[in-house]
Structures are given as structure tokens and as C-alpha cells.
Amino acid sequence: MYGLCMMVAVFVGYQVTSWDQMANFGVLMAVLMLMLVPFLLKWHHVWLIATWNTTAFLFFLPGKPTLVLALAACSLLVSMLHHAINQEAPFIHVRILFWPLVFLTCVVLATAKLTGGIGLNVAGSSNVGGKRYIFMFGAIAGYFALTAQRIPREKVIRYASLFFMSPVTSLISDISLLMGPSAVYYIFLIFPSSGMMDAEVGSGAGPTEIARFGGTAIACSAVAYTMVARYGLRGIFNGGRIWRAPIFLLLFVASMFGGYRSTLLMFVITCGLMFWLERLYTSRLMPVMLCGMLLGAVVLIPLAAHLPSSMQRTLTVVPFLKVGDDAEASAKDSSDWRIQMWKEVLPEIQPHLILGKGYSIDLVELEKINTTGLGNTGEEGSKMAGDYHNGPLSVIIPFGIGGVIAFLWLIGAGLKVLYNNFKYGDAAFQQINTYLLAAFIAKAIFFLGVFGSFYSDLAGFTGLLGLSVAINNGMRLPVRAPQRVSDTWKVTQARPVALN
Predict the structure, then answer these.
(1) Cα 422 from chain centre
(2) Which of 8, 63, 329, 340 has the highest Cβ tally under 10 A?
(3) 210-249 as b/e: b if 16+ CB within 10 A
């Protein structure tokens, strides 16, 4: 072993002397990853949970996959090997979720086969777009990796907090811009830019630059959602900890610095569902919250036009607020661009209703668009790439009616699993199960009615389902247990059990 380590040390030392060559850097990273195998074998499951929503990329691997994509593959492989060796460590099998995921996989594979293949250009294919297929397969594989084992009861809150807090890494891209260009290049290799400064075309003669701290907004939202998952709205505003409510409200305000209207909408939908599921409308918090919302509206209406431009752009989704002309023009241009693209894309539904378009893109056609300059507007390029900025369109055009059936089947099955776990789950995890149900419903509403991309949002759905199954050891169901009393049988109150 000493001799082997010396040989590896000499080899790595030689690679370090040629640091300017990316190929040598990739070899060095591969050696370091090999040294992490013992740690991966022990902690692959918690690593997958902690990185599920991160934005990190493995830039030294072909195709630059995301960190969670690589961890999902490794974790599933380790779990399969462990199960092959130890038959007493089976996967948590939830049949109601298993079959829609299998059907979705078959639809994706069939569509890819009939529309030119997956098309991995990094593998020498003449087509591109295969990375989107890999994202979808990774989301499905990630679900099975998450449900490979049950989360220990004493670690549920810790693991769930890691899962919800993982988007905080988006903050790194914003902070790195303050460190100078020499540091930005290396940091962006792992954590890509969140688009801190976007040039939007306003109503005037030239572009209007709006500082949009996208990473900051995502990170603040993640911390706020983690608080909701751990304490619930009742625990935040009436839990005996006076620091929770101010921090929660501060995070909510800071999340609007991203300039994304979707952030505000998602926040309102999720918290509204939590308010309903926790039955706060029957508590004494109801009048307090109504008065607080009314007071906030009275203060916000006259101050909206004087807020930072990014916050004004976020608030353009509120109809009664008057914001600055630049923010309003930026939001209107973005909405008009999407509506115009949807109008042009709608006729594509009929020819792709049976057999979807898929994600494969011909390089010759793509080069033609770039040469003629059509792709400079972004509209034609987005249509070709399948970025329709609309959830239903991103399902039906690439995968046809089969994709629609698979997606709706998965959503319906997921709602049943999450509702049962919310209703019959362990009382110690009531807040987490409540938030999982609210977050899943909010994500489905947002995907179907506001904004969505099937290949990138699928991991969000499967991640919530996988975490719920791993926490509750499957889907909880009520069981009526017979009990003998005075030579007669009577049915006791329903008690929850797990359905594997």
C-alpha cells in the first residue's frame, strides 16, 4: 500500500506541474474523487439529500454535469450493490409512485428513440440536446436513490433542514462578483452566475440595467422555507420565540431583491397553503395576520415607487401597486416576449400530440439559425431548445399525450402519498409533512399556471416525494385494529402504519 501511494503521489505531483492544462486538472480531480470513495460508501445518502437543490457543477467531467446528478447516480449504484449483498436492506417500495415513474421513463426513452436519439454531442453525436434527457433520467434515478433507505428517526429534522437549505449555495455566485475578476472565473466554474446584473429593454431609447441579485433571492427564500418546514407558520408567529417572525419577514423582503415575480408568487402560494393546512384561520392569529397584511399594504403603496429597482420589478405582479417606469417596462417586455412565443408555439401542439418533438436538436439547423441571426432575439433559439417558459407546453410538445398522462399520473399519485403522510404520519414530523404537501401543491400550481420547464422541474417534484417517502418509510395508511373487549370485537381508533 505504501508503494502504491508513493506511485500515486508521484503521478499527482507531475500533473500539478502542468496545472494550466485542463486535461491534467481532470485527472487530478479524478484521483481525489477516488480517494473519497470510502466516505461516499458511508455517507452517500445524506450527501445526496444535502446537495439536491444546489447549483454546483462538476466542470472537469465531460458534459459538465451537476453535482447532484453525479451523486444521484453514485448513490443509486451504491444502494443497489448494498442491497445485492444484504437482502435485509431493501428499497422503500411505494407502488403508487413506482409505476408512473416507470411509465414516464418509457415515454422518454421511446420519444428519444423515435426522434433522432438522445443526442449527446460530448459523445460524438451529430445532434445536441441530450443533456435534458440526462436531467430527466437523473431526477427519476434520484427518487430511487432517496428512497433506498429510511432516514433514521433521530436525524429526520436535520436531514430535512439540509434538503431545504441546499439552495443557499446560490449566494456564492453573487458574493463572488464582489471579489474581483480573478476569483470570479474559478468560482463560476463550479457555481455559475445567477445573473446579478441583467440588461432589460425598457420603455426608453436604450437598455435599462436593473441590478438583480438572483442568488441572494434564492438563498433567502431557502432559509425562509426551512423555517416554515421546521416550525410552521404557527411556530414562527406564535411559538414563543420573538426572533423568528422578524427574521422570517426580513428574509421575505430580501428575497425580492432578485427581481423575479415568480419568487413572490411562489412565496404567497406556499404560505397560503401552509396557513390553510395548519388551520390558522380558526386560531387567534387570524385577526392579527389580517391586520398585519392591511398595515403592510398601507405602508407599501406610497413607498413602492421609491424602492430599489429589483424590488419594484418583483412587485409588478401586484396589480394595485404603482412602481417606476423602468421596472414596469422591464416586466412588461418580459411578459410580452413570453406571450408572443406561446402564440407561435401553440400550432406545434397538434403535429406533436401523438409523438412528441423530443429534445434532440440538429446541429445543421442550429447553425443555420445562428448564421441568419434569428437566434439573436432569443425567441427562435428558445423554441428550438424547448424553453417555452410554460409548464404544460414543456410537457406536451416534447413528449406528446404520453408525457401528459405520465406527468398527471405522477402528480396525482404524489398528492395522495403526501396527503396520507400529512394526515397519518408521525406526529413528531407533522410540520415537515405539512410543508412537503404545501410545497408540492404550490409547485404543481406554479408549474401548470405560471412558469415551468419539465426537464428542470422534474427533480423538484421527485425530490419532495423521495424525501417524504424516506422520512415516513413509505406511504402512511390508517389501519383499524380489532381489540377484544368482553367477549366481543370492537374496532379501535385508526392508527397510522407505513405502506411499503
Answers:
(1) 21
(2) 329
(3) bebbbbbbbbbbbbbbbbbbbbbbbbbbbeeeeebbeebe
Q: What is the CA radius of gyration of the chain?
A: 25
Cβ atoms 164, 222 nearer than 8 A: yes
All three cell numbers of 39: 466516505
Q: Where are the alpha helices (DSSP H) in 208-316?
A: 214-238, 244-254, 261-277, 285-303, 309-315
C-alpha cell at 240: 414563543
Label residue 10 exposed, middle or buried (CB < 10 Å: 0-12, 13-18, 19+): exposed
179 located within any domain:
no
Q: Give me the count of residues in the chain.
A: 500
Lowest mean pLDDT among 46-55, 179-188, 361-370: 361-370
Residue 463 belongs to what domain range?
94-167+349-500
Last residue in a domain, options 314, 348, 382: 348
Query: Is position 172 within any domain?
Result: no
pTM: 0.86
Pinpoint the alpha helices (H) of 123-243: 130-146, 156-165, 171-176, 181-190, 214-238
**In the predicted model, what is the mean pLDDT of residues 223-248?**
89
Q: Say yes or no: 305 and 208 in one domain.
A: yes
The total of structural domains in the chain comes to 2
The answer to whether residue 55 sits within a structural domain is no
Measured N-to-C along each axis, helices 156-165 and 37-50 cross at an angle, to the nearest 10 degrees, of: 70
Residue type, 285: L
Q: Name residues whose C-beta falls within 8 Å of residue 303's C-beta, 6 or more positions apart in sequence.
A: none
Taking only the tens place, the pLDDT of each residue in 170-229 is 888 777 766 666 656 677 778 876 554 443 433 333 344 566 788 888 999 999 999 999
Q: Which pLDDT tens digit goes with each residue over 121-147?
A: 655 555 667 788 999 999 999 999 999
Answer yes or no: are the C-beta atoms of 391 and 443 closer than 8 Å.
Answer: no
